[in-house]
Amino acid sequence: MEAREFTLLHMRGRYSYSVASLSWFERKAAAVFYAAPPSATMDEALVDFLAAEEEKPEWIENLIYIVRIYYAKNDKENTKKYCNKLLALTPTDEDERDRLDEARKILAKC
Q1: What pLDDT, in 10s, does the model give residues 32-77?
Q2: If DSSP states are collapsed to H, E and C, what string results for the chain?
Q3: Global pTM?
Q4: How confident is the model at residue 27 (pLDDT cuts 50, 70, 90)?
Q5: What GO cellular component entries does it have (predicted)?
Q6: Which domains are assigned to the chain?
Q7: What's the CA gap between 75 and 38, in Å, rounded?
């Protein structure tokens, strides 16, 4: 994969994030359909999101996933860092405004 392919990095990060977020029940249900259920970790997702961030800084959609992972890992320092980075940006649509609202709520919990 070309390093410049930030959208592919982001999509692979979202896949890893989704798989890592599966509940025990969801994993067992997936095992019915697959020989081995898909596996991924938050750390794998984070690597991809951070690589996408290097290629396309200030992408709100990508930054919120970085915030979510650091928050899930209880890494308050990086959660605050990326929340503040997100909150310094200007949203261009309703989805981006929602992401900034989510970042504000997460930041308030740190």
Answers
A1: 888 777 889 999 999 999 999 999 999 999 999 999 999 999 999 9
A2: CCCCCHHHHHHHHHHHHHHHCCCHHHHHHHHHHCCCCCCCCHHHHHHHHHHHHHHCCCCHHHHHHHHHHHHHCCCHHHHHHHHHHHHCCCCCCHHHHHHHHHHHHHHHHC
A3: 0.90
A4: confident
A5: mitochondrion; mitotic spindle pole; spindle microtubule
A6: 6-108 (1.25.40)
A7: 26
Residue linked to tokens 């919990």 = 109
The pLDDT value given to residue 4: 65
What pLDDT was estimated at residue 38? 81
Encoded tokens for 71:
């928050």
In this prediction, residue 34 carries a pLDDT of 80
